[in-house]
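Memo to structure team: turn this sequence into structure tokens by end of day. - J.P.
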Amino acid sequence: MAAAFMGCSHNKHPFVFHTPQEAVVACHEELAKVKQMNSATIDELAQVINTWAELQDSTMSLMMRDSTMTVHNDLASEFFAVADSFRMEITDLALTQKRSMADVMKLKVATSSNRKAALASEEFKSVRQYYMDFNRRIIQSAESCRNDINAKKPLTAKQGANYRWLLIQPFLALDNYATAALTDQQIETLNQLAEELPKLLAYVDGKDYDRSPKEETEKLSTVLSEYFLKSYLKSIL
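Reply from structure team:
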């Protein structure tokens, strides 16, 4: 629920409610819509998540302004229960089909707009610079590994382990705000790395990607994609 509190002061939303009760009713309605979905593309998931984030922020803002509301209030408990249900429903929906690392990256970028607005503010200036430097460093390291692999550079077992970590690191280490601080060029680079990741990891593991069974060469990237997707959804919902 931390994301709900953090987004309130920076997120502009189209929802207008007069009471917390109205807002919670709308939360129930949004949850009902998600429950009716049997599958969703990444774009559809992003739209649902962004809508929920706006709705959640609106509801939390109303509750925080209402002096009669406490965390033990029945309405507050009802809202938190709906939020928990939404988190489970959207996670199940996201996992109804196989998602690639490129899918995960696309979802992270598409759902970072409210944090991007926060980072653009003067109060986040020093934090913004930290994330920009961090992003540049880990993306450059991953690019360097990719270039070596594309050049067929021989790797020792130790080098292979280091390369594996450096290739995975951007997708693991980029938190919500780091993602919001990415430049368009960095997003493009990460999308390319995500698309190439199965082949790059296969090389690191000493496998011929083009001649090996796909279920073998893509096993690690598939497991990582699902793990990162679950972790990301847990962090924002």
